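Retro notes (design track)

What went well: tokenization of the new backbones is finally stable.
What didn't: we kept losing track of which sequence belonged to which structure.
Fix going forward: every design gets posted as structure first, then sequence, in one message. First example under the new rule, 271 residues:
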């Protein structure tokens, strides 16, 4: 096992914080070291200093992509924090459907992980708009910094036991069974989600149009207060008036610092 010196850990965690906004304290040291051991062994590195130099000097981006995949926890599932999806279905969609005249509904799943959140939103909208769905552009932009989870998300394949809890008509109409172990998202839902690699720490967002709804749940728990404040400010700037921001229930915004209005736990709105 390759041990990590305090200075090496500080170098690595400072680099991750600066470039990806993820704050890794000393309590995470054993976790980080454990997850990176195989990488060091495979590359024949004898120290974390060698590994750090390799990451920062690699021009292909593969090394840092692998690092991000190792240190991020991409745990999610269908209908996670279901109250958000019910509120989206029962309150947000009726409001937006009545106010958006050009039928261009823009939704962003930021930190989409393996795709369950984005696909859930697409299925809800398919149900909501029904026969009028072809008249609307409701494609969901789904982004993450991890190339590994994005590949999984694009495939749209999930274990049958992981979709048991979702509504029966979703399993029937929006999934195709592959075998006794797996099912795949139907093309009419898969085509409604656009997966892209994106780092939320980018100082400027490249989007040409603003969003009506942004889901960024259980992502900012890794960020320090200043990073979170700046990110929420960028979200605000890229939201349409009347738009909604959904964050995780384990997260909160300082109401004195944010321009967003509190709606309900973990839901905020741009007035």
């Amino acid at each position: 096992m390759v041990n990590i010196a305090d200075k090496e850990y500080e170098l690595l965690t400072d680099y991750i914080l600066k470039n990806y906004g993820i704050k890794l304290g000393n309590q995470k040291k054993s976790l980080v070291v454990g997850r990176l051991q195989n990488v060091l062994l495979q590359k024949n590195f004898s120290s974390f200093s060698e590994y750090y130099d390799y990451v920062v000097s690699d021009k292909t981006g593969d090394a840092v992509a692998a690092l991000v995949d190792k240190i991020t926890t991409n745990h999610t599932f269908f209908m996670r924090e279901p109250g958000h999806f019910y509120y989206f279905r029962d309150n947000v969609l009726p409001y937006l459907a009545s106010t958006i005249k050009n039928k261009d509904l823009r939704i962003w799943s930021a930190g989409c992980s393996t795709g369950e959140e984005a696909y859930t939103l697409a299925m809800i909208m398919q149900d909501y708009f029904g026969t009028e769905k072809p008249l609307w552009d409701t494609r969901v932009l789904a982004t993450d910094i991890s190339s590994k989870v994005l590949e999984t998300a694009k495939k749209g394949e999930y274990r049958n036991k992981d979709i048991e809890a979702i509504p029966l008509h979703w399993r029937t109409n929006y999934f195709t069974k592959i075998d006794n172990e797996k099912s795949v998202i139907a093309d009419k839902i898969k085509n409604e989600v656009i997966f892209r690699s994106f780092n939320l720490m980018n100082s400027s967002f490249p989007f040409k149009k603003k969003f009506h709804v942004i889901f960024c749940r259980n992502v900012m728990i890794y960020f320090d207060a200043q990073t979170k404040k700046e990110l929420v400010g960028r979200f605000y700037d890229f939201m349409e008036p009347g738009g909604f921001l959904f964050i995780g229930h384990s997260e909160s915004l300082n109401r004195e610092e944010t321009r967003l209005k509190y709606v309900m736990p973990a839901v905020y709105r741009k007035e």
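Added context from the reviewer: The mean pLDDT is 90.
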